[in-house]
Every structure is written in structure tokens, then in C-alpha cells.
């Protein structure tokens, strides 16, 4: 990131993600059936590279993310990789409660 301090302060904004990398992970997973992906350690507040090995065991794979429906830039191509997309609407109070629990 050009400005790591600003990126940290704005963590979670669309521009703090690497959608091209996500697209590479998804395409690799689809073609090879397995891939190493980073995880996010909330204790340290940073990603952990190649932390999780994902292998296709079932016909359904769930990918969670705030911007998977964003229809701009590389995220538009990421969105096209999925056979189905589901949006789960949750009230802002519940979302904030969950964020608070996650950070404690």
C-alpha cells in the first residue's frame, strides 16, 4: 500500500483489499481443486499469508466478503467467477454487535 498508516486506519474499505489476488485464488481453486489462502488474525489485526489450505471436498464452496457484489474494477470479474451469489441482509445494530465481539 502506498500509505500503510492510512490503509490501517481505513481497514475494511474496498481499496484496502487486493481483488486481483482474490481472483487468482478463486481461479486456481476452480482449476486445481485446492489452494493456499491467507487468513486474518484479529488478535494482531493483520493477514497471515498462506495460512489456510482449502481443498474441494463438496460441491458447494462459500466465499464471504463485503465487496463480492461490487460491480467495479477487478471485483466485477471476481463476481463473475461464482455460479450463485447470495446476499444476507443483517441490521446495522446486529452487525456492530458482531464486530465488537470479534475485536474483544
From TrEMBL:
Superkingdom field: Eukaryota
Protein name in the entry: Uncharacterized protein
